[in-house]
Amino acid sequence: MRRSFLLLSALAALVALDPAAEPELCFAAVVHPTNPARDLGWHELTSLFEGTNRRWPNHSAVILVERDSGSAPYRYLMAHLLNTTAVEYKRSLQGVEYRGEAPVAVKILNSDAAACQFVYNVPTAIAIVEARSLSSPACALVQVLRIEGKLPSEEGYRMK
To answer: Integer distance in angstroms from the first to the last C-alpha of the chain?
Structure first.
């Protein structure tokens, strides 16, 4: 009996250490429902968060909403969307201002619900949140953008 318990404990520990055993996280870009954007290409999304494109097609200023540095959406933003480190990212955003251009507007929030609520209250904001948060009351109020024509639930969606 004890041997079975130890074997099961060891097996559970191995599964917990195996990153493949964890469910794959999926992320979504969200905007205010009145934002005319409904579908962004990967490079368009990247250019918004890099600060190289700071205007929506209607010429209103983009407000970037980021999650706190310990969150999964922030780690995804750095590692997959921007392919950079937090230090390099901050340096890049500061470089925009040092070149005499208008600074990039960034709001850092501590939850997906807070990010969605901010996006709902600020029509020119965009945020990246975990797709599983989309069912929360705060995130139900915002518009999920298609990325390269696909939504988070569709096959081939890129933000995983």
So the answer is: 41
Interatomic CA distance for residues 9 and 63, integer angstroms: 48
**Those residues with Cβ within 8 angstroms of residue 102's Cβ, 6 or more apart along the chain or in another chain:** 54, 61, 96
State the Cα–Cα distance between residues 137 and 49, nearest whole angstrom: 25
C-alpha of 84 from chain center: 14
> 160 pLDDT band (50/70/90 cuts)?
very high
**Does residue 121 sit within a domain?**
yes
Tokens representing residue 55 in the block: 């205007």
Residue 1 lies in a domain: no
Going from the C-alpha of 142 to that of each of 30, 104, 120, 133, 145, the distances in angstroms are 6, 22, 6, 11, 10
Residue 1 has pLDDT above 70, yes or no: no
CATH number of the CATH domain containing 81: 3.40.190.10
Could you give the C-alpha distances from 77 to 55, 97, 156, in angstroms and in order? 19, 21, 19
Q: What pTM was estimated for this model as a whole?
A: 0.84
**At 111, is the secondary structure helix, strand, or coil?**
coil
Task: Write out the residue range of the structural domain in which residue 33 sits.
Answer: 23-147
Q: Is residue 157 part of a domain?
A: no
For the segment 108-136, what is each residue's pLDDT rounded down to a tens digit?
999 999 999 999 999 999 999 999 999 99
